[in-house]
Amino acid sequence: MYKLGHYVLSKIDPEFAHNLSIKSLKMGIYPTFKNQNTESLEQIIWGRGFKTPIGLSAGFDKNAEVFPALFKIGFSFVETGTVTPLPQKGNPKPRIHRFKKYDAIVNSLGFNNKGLDQFRKNILNFSNRVDYKDKVMGINIGNNKNTIDILDDLKILFENLYRFGDYITVNLSSPNTPGLRDNLKGNNFDRIVKEIYKLREQNNSKIPILFKISPDISPQDKKDIALIALANDIDGLILTNTTVDKSILNSQLSGGLSGKPLAKKSNELIRDFYTLTSGKIKIIGVGGIFTAEDVIQKMHYGASLVQLYSSFIFNGPYFINELNRDLSQAIQEMGYKNISEIIGLQV
Ligand SMILES: Cc1cc2nc3c(=O)[nH]c(=O)nc-3n(C[C@H](O)[C@H](O)[C@H](O)COP(=O)(O)O)c2cc1C
Known about the structure:
The chain is an alpha/beta fold. The chain has a single domain (33-342), classed as Aldolase class I (TIM Barrel), CATH 3.20.20. The chain is built from eleven helices and 13 strands. The longest helix is centred in the middle third of the chain and has 17 residues, at 186-202. 44% of the residues are buried. The model has no long low-confidence stretch (mean pLDDT 94). The site of flavin mononucleotide has 26 residues, from strand 6, strand 11 and helix 10.
């Protein structure tokens, strides 16, 4: 039944299909699985227990409406958001396009979301009803389109949300919010990092704060970001968001490309940052993961954890459970006791 449902979703307008998926997850219409033995995949990072290294990246559960259901279909962690302070409609439709031939998606959504107040209400609704205590929920924050100083929005979001998640991601890398990626330039990035960590200290919080980076940065930006990350001892980097390089598709669409064609760029960034930071900054690798080998490749290049989005859209609700199983088998066959042993082996 779920396979048929996923087939139908793959044939209709992608944003309509997304909204239907959220509805069915809300209504409890999704397959559930027996717990697998994935002991070899368990890690403790930032004091949080990750049952497997595979998480769902930001943009699927933008309003924190369905993350407990997403844990049940196999994700060990889910990054909710991007949430902005005020509700926002985003860019004109159609703004999600699938390219099945390339296993790729182009989106130009522009942080469409219901805003901070609804986001917090949604999380509070769950806390008494669903037990997701052994799972990890991240909150990805971003600015409204018309905000002049991004820090004004980031501060409001941090102060209102840091109690509700297991980590916070500051999104500086969507190509669909004008000017956002300028914040990855040396001085701008340094100011944001310092101010957000200062705010954490003022609130006596220890919540890990990560920064999500674009794959389209220059070699100089890489060096600057790595130095700033080390100097401020940041908790982690998420590498990467979508790329504006859509040459492979031969298409005039605006927006960011995700899926298989992103893997190479994302992997390069992971390897470069792992080298530039001597492995001292934790990396979550994201971009074009479709198989257990793809996960292993990113971890070999220095990622401690990984996330995916596009392959979940193309492969449906059984996929994550299968990926966890394949990864666990591969690690055992390679003769490792724990997956953490492979991090950075091919750098
Ligand atoms: C439809 C769509 C919406 C997305 N929305 C967000 C978002 O709100 N915030 C964010 O940080 N990344 C967002 N992303 C980027 C993903 O989180 C991820 O970084 C990117 O898709 C690369 O992973 P993938 O190749 O596995 O899809 C979005 C991606 C897609 C396809």
